[in-house]
Amino acid sequence: MGTPIIALIGATAVGKSAVAVELARHIGGEIINADSRQVYRGMAIGTGVPSEEERGGVLHHLYGISKPDDDFSLGRFLTAAKCAIQDIHERGKTPIVVGGTGQYVWALLEGWNVPEVAPDPDLRQELMERAEADGREVLHKELRRLDPAAAELIHPNNLIRTVRALEVVVTTGRPFSAQRTQTAPPWDIRITGVSMERDALDSRIEQRVDRQLEVGWIDEVRSLLAAGYSSSLSSFRSIGYREIAAHIESGMPFDEMRQTIIHKTRRFARTQFAWFRHDDERITWMDADEESEQLAEQTQAALGL
Question: What is this structure's pTM?
Fold first, then answer.
């Protein structure tokens, strides 16, 4: 059995970060971010990065490590996360991987070997323009023709992954699916999930969006735009950023902006349920109705820590 690693997963707004901090205090752990949007600097409010106070003195890794105009890839995440895990283990601590980006979580825990193909900005732009003109289903149909196995794994609505798979196929001349293999990681992996009823989660999402707006989310986006970062950047696909940019630049009414953000966040939470299934026997589920400290204690007991 390898060195231990804990994964704490679940949908957005269920309270993963608070539970992770309490768990880290209990077991001597450090937290590794597995949220694809929390890697960007200057976007802490809208992506829900824990504040210094919320971190409670626990070391957090891979938050705010990339500029907003970088295309942060799955491959970069895996490299950085593995380095962080090794560093934490060498200091006698336990890594706690926390996040809601299913692709990041399972790629790390299942040992995906991602094709090391550099992004092709021109090809990517061409594919994105085709999707905008003809619809994303056209690109997914092309992927199904070129690489049926990859198309089976990628949802037709997931434009980013569809474009990346096509990019790899066109660049290398080989199927994307044939280049992504798995190597079992050398860790003792224990996974716990935090969940709540959907109606309760919908309510919490609305409360969270309102809190983010109250503490300066609009000013955060205004600062990014003033620094020269375009709302067309990949980082601005994080829910809410383009809506707030439209409010600032084009006069989208505040109420319309707010309702759109809430709706998109709720819809995003539904997609996360597909990545983190309650019938997945690898996951020990906890009910988010409890306080974070009690959840941490339950997690510690359930995972035998």
Answer: 0.85
